[in-house]
Amino acid sequence: MAQQKSIKKNFLMNAILTMSSLVFPLITFPYVSRVLGPAGTGAVSFANSFVMYFLMISQLGIPTYGIRACAQVREDKIELSRTVQELVIINLVMSAVMYVLLFLSIATIPRLQSDRTLYLVVSSMILLNAVGMEWMYKGLEEYTYITIRSVIFKALALVFMFLLIHEKEDYVIYGGIAVFAAYASNLVNLVYARKYITMRPVGNYDFRRHFKAVGIFFAMAVATTIYTNLDVVMLGFMTTKVDTGYYDAAVKIKNILVSIVTSLGAVLLPRSSYYVEQGMMDEFREVSRKAIRFVFLFAFPLTLYFILFAGEGIFFLSGQQYGGSIRPMQIIMPTLVFIGLSNILGLQILVPTGKEKTVLYSEIAGAVTDLVLNALLIPRFHASGAAMGTVMAELVVLIWQYAALKDEVSSMFKSVPVLPIVTALLAAAVVSLWVKLLGLGYFMTLLISACLFFAGYLAVLLMWKEPFTTDILRQVKNRLMLG
Predict the structure, then answer these.
(1) DSSP secondary structure letter of residue 331
(2) pTM of the model
(3) What HEC string does 329-382 produce?
(4) pLDDT tens digits, residue range 335-365?
(5) Which of 426, 327, 344 is nearest to 384 (CA)?
(6) Which element (helix H / strand E) includes 261?
(7) How far apart are the first and last CA of the chain?
(8) Cβ–Cβ < 8 Å for 301, 432
(9) What 3-state DSSP class applies to 20?
(10) Using an 8 Å Cβ cutoff, are 269 and 348 in contact?
């Protein structure tokens, strides 16, 4: 068996990658939101969400399926090369079809024609994604490479952001830089891939062997994309660019936090697939148990803190003109817990064990829930209505997946230290809320309150001698002593 990469190292690299994704919007969005205003950021958010549907169809579920497929054959270079080439060809063919449909949409839908250039710029993500093979690197657990490459391109995008965006009309440039930050590094993937696979055609292709699984993963991607982007698209068509901008500010913060909560699950998917393929079920169950505990311990404090300090967070990041973002942000925060848990149940347990259809059905249920609630709530509550629909959609997904896995994961959930977590959350709220009364300004209020909140939360968990927390602290101490 090939040498296993360290899960701890992979998690550290993915944490750094997540932090870079956190720092980039934290630095840029306060500047961009003030320059472009809610209308400018709303236009880019709507364009991204609209093009994302075409990107999603072009991918056919390959981003998730490809991780599992590559992880299963990673010890055979020829078979890995064949698998990657087959999936890239499928991806490129579908991308060409989607470009035709996207250009037809831009040409025929009046709502899109006023920002035709923006849509064309943002659409470059479809081609960059097709040639990037990000799923191969994740399947091979090459998180160090992924992290270094991504951080470099985000740093470049950061420089471009401040050099090129100076007035409201620069929102098209903002859309292009956002695509650059997220997808341009895929060009490096194409060059670097020769280290792991042969770039020459290996022949004996069998595209049909992927169709059934890709079809299921594609349907999963459709359902997921519907209820993760439908709120912005429906807001764009049913309300104004300003309302979309309010919602975008709230969702940006939520997405940053979600990436932190789901970072461990992203690392564990290829490892879980490998354990199942090798019949190592005890190891598979142990990493799943730890992942669920991780989500409970990390998602709940993040959720509560950003509900309590939503106003300060929004005004610091986006400015006074984004007051309409506060309530949507408070409403949408519980999705950190729901997404974190469904990410573990779906991507780490159901997918590696070949139960993709269960994930698909849960996401269809979430998409239907989101569609119905958005139609009912957005006309009356605008951005807050979209947030309500998203929360309920994510809750439906989680309940569906838990019901399907109840016999297998109930013991994992019962092992979660509920009383220590609740006590720690109450203590953290008490020791931090008074900072609001000091009138220190948004940044200092966030800085001091966050230190008090999370220090208080950690202290109570350590008083309870919560195993996961004490283990992490012990490892940190060991590393510091060795250093």
Answers:
(1) H
(2) 0.68
(3) HHHHCCHHHHHHHHHHHHHHHHCCCCCHHHHHHHHHHHHHHHHHHHHHHHHHHC
(4) 999 998 888 888 777 877 777 788 888 888 9
(5) 327
(6) helix 241-261
(7) 32
(8) no
(9) helix
(10) yes
